[in-house]
Amino acid sequence: MSNKTSAVVKTNPRKAVMIGCGFVGSASVFALMQSGLFSEIVLIDADKDKAEGEAMDISHGIPFARPMKIYAGGYDDVADAAIIVVSAGAGQKPGETRLDLVNKNVAIFKSIIPEIAKRNFGGILLIVANPVDILTQVAQKLSGLPEERVIGSGTVLDSARLKYALGEHLEVDSRSVHAFIVGEHGDSEVVAWSSANVSGVELHKMCEMRGHYKHKENTEEIAANVKNSAYEIINRKHATYYGIAMSVRRICEVIMRDEKSILPVSHMMHGQYGIDGVVLSMPAIVGANGVESDIPIELNGEEALKLKESADALKSILDGLEL
Ligand SMILES: NC(=O)c1ccc[n+]([C@@H]2O[C@H](COP(=O)([O-])OP(=O)(O)OC[C@H]3O[C@@H](n4cnc5c(N)ncnc54)[C@H](O)[C@@H]3O)[C@@H](O)[C@H]2O)c1
């Protein structure tokens, strides 16, 4: 927890900062530019030319959106931001898992997060770089910010992929599908099938209404496709960025508009499902102050066990880190 709260800088509620302007950072800024949420977005990257080039390119869309300033900057620009998104870090190469990125990206975070902490930042820190759950916990530790203000995009993207897949399978609007992926944003993620529904109708009933009776095969196939979708995209185009960009936009919208929507963001567990002291994704009420309250959705025995295994996998990586 921070002991610097008295010196916190007043935030500008219309200002965002993106740290890391690669595929994910620039696609997210492009989505944010169109959202109308901000009047100022600052781009920071170790490669200053890259930040400047992206700021110039994205700014040229402003006449088709709303007036705002998008520019390359430095850490002195972060103090009064309402939200800082961190996408800086290496991405997965074909064959690499998200957890393979941990050492490279922890080293990068050690150069970024203390720069933010020094400036008495008073807003929300949103981590997107992978492995996102671990890096969110690293950012909580290195920043000293209150943990509810340091959150990760977690399984917001995975849950969107699941909703999309179920929407296609059932031929219904994916926005009417309510289903979460919980745990690690990665290979140990867990589909919370037992709480999945379509506008209140239990999933298996909806499947039968739409002519699908092979529940076990279908759910296994959908879960595997969702889990492997990043690998499949990376094999074809070397990176994933549009889905996460829309996820970043949605998380920012929920925070900036204090929507108190329920999103499966990465945040610290305090004993829920027997998990303590590990950041992972579970549905939570998110608003202007970050994570406001955990929503312990119903999990069956198998799902709860898998969630515990996911937490243990993350914990064993965290225990090996020197922070
Ligand atoms: N959370 C998710 O759902 C999700 C989805 C897709 C990708 N990602 C992750 O996002 C991260 C970025 O992916 P990408 O495809 O944009 O990679 P990228 O290589 O295109 O971009 C990374 C950027 O970070 C910059 N950078 C590196 N070190 C820096 C530092 N110390 N300070 C500032 N900038 C620095 C690089 O110059 C580069 O521009 C990866 O870790 C990737 O795995 C997360």
Automatic annotation (TrEMBL):
Pathway(s) served: Fermentation; pyruvate fermentation to lactate; (S)-lactate from pyruvate: step 1/1
EC number: 1.1.1.27
Binding site for NAD(+): 20-25, 45, 50, 75, 89-90, 105, 111, 128-130, 153
Catalytic activity: (S)-lactate + NAD(+) = pyruvate + NADH + H(+)
Cellular location(s): Cytoplasm
Activity regulation info: Allosterically activated by fructose 1,6-bisphosphate (FBP).
Keyword Phosphoprotein set for record: yes
UniProt cross-references to SUPFAM superfamilies, sorted A to Z: LDH C-terminal domain-like, NAD(P)-binding Rossmann-fold domains
One GO term describing the cellular component: cytoplasm
Residues reported in the UniProt entry to bind beta-D-fructose 1,6-bisphosphate: 163, 178
One example GO MF annotation: L-lactate dehydrogenase (NAD+) activity
Modified residues (Phosphotyrosine): 231
GO biological process: glycolytic process; lactate metabolic process
CDD domains tied to this protein: LDH_2
Major localization class: cytoplasm
Domain Lactate/malate dehydrogenase N-terminal per the UniProt entry, residue ranges: 15-152
Keyword Cytoplasm set for record: yes
Function: Catalyzes the conversion of lactate to pyruvate.
Protein family according to the UniProt entry: Belongs to the LDH/MDH superfamily. LDH family.
Complex and partners: Homotetramer.
Annotated protein name in UniProt: L-lactate dehydrogenase
Species: Agathobacter rectalis
Origin organism lineage: Bacteria, Bacillati, Bacillota, Clostridia, Lachnospirales
